[in-house]
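pasting D-galactarolactone cycloisomerase for the record, 359 residues
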Amino acid sequence: MSDNLHTRISSVELNDVITRYPRSIGRNAVLGTHGTGPTAPAVTISTIDGATGWGLLGGRCDDPGSLIGKRVDEIFDLGVGVLDPATLWADFALHDLAGILTGQSVHTILGDHGGREISTYDGSIYFDDLDPLDAPRGIDVVLENVQDGWDDGHRAFKIKIGRGFTWMGEREGFQRDVEVVRAVHDAFPSARLLVDGNNGFSVEAAINFLESVADVGLFWFEEPFNEHRNGLERLRDWRRSTGGEVLIADGEYRPDVDEVVRFAEAGLVDVLLMDVVGFGLTPWRALAAKLGGSGIKISPHAWGLPIKTCYAGQMAVGLADVITVEGVRGQTDGVEGGYAVVDGMLTVPDTPGFGLRVV
Ligand SMILES: [Mg+2]
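structre below
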């Protein structure tokens, strides 16, 4: 099958993909409004035989033409991914192209080590209660946002917390965070709830927060504070002393990957979150193979683009140990694919490559 990768690249084109969220998304602990959807760079690679693959740009690309004339199997291996780190900008486009050339989905290329369906969560529950500035809408709008995700098939929701870090007084913000989580739990008692602090908590405040919502049964606490061993140890000791089961998820924001992996190996981080695109599919493949069997879970960060949810879904089916996938809701202009969220579960297509058609 790898003989099919013997063909040569004839063109490489950069293009943009435009995302449209279902609504304007508000602030988190550190960033202002996230707006109605970003434009992101992508790359389309074609071969002399007329096959085409495309994907989001996986990093800086100074010279797209450098791939023209190369054989696909000179730069890509089905068992590894991209062979030269300098070509990681083409990581997703080359996985897509390799799938199309060999008639396989990306999840099959990755080994089909995961489950066929994967749980997903709606990652769009931000601080919309604080907007607009002149007439904040309060907690009701957060509940409306959760209902909207529920109507779209989601049964798990990641709630942004840390209002006291930038936008409200420390005590007032903490209190609002607690009220929001409690209100969502009361209104949607069967929903799985996750929280994301965007590193806006002290260690003490993180523990206080978990104690304040102990009865909610949170699934995970993402990035409570900038990860450091002492803080993570105190959090782990607190969890042990209470018998709590909340998972600690980290590694999204500017991770020192080796260090975060060491924290995970020491039982201080349960779920590794490096970004789907920022870290990259080829590096994730290598890391997942290294972690295999260790019990460390992964959930590549996908926020920002629905296409990243599709990529993370393929990784979940393909790689072992993806615990859940971040669902980014919205439309991508001119792109269709057989991805669906039903009753909280994401299904991914078996069509070649990522199965994302440009229409
Ligand atoms: Mg996050």
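The CA atoms of residues 119 and 345 lie 4 Å apart.
The first strand starts at residue 9 and ends at 20.
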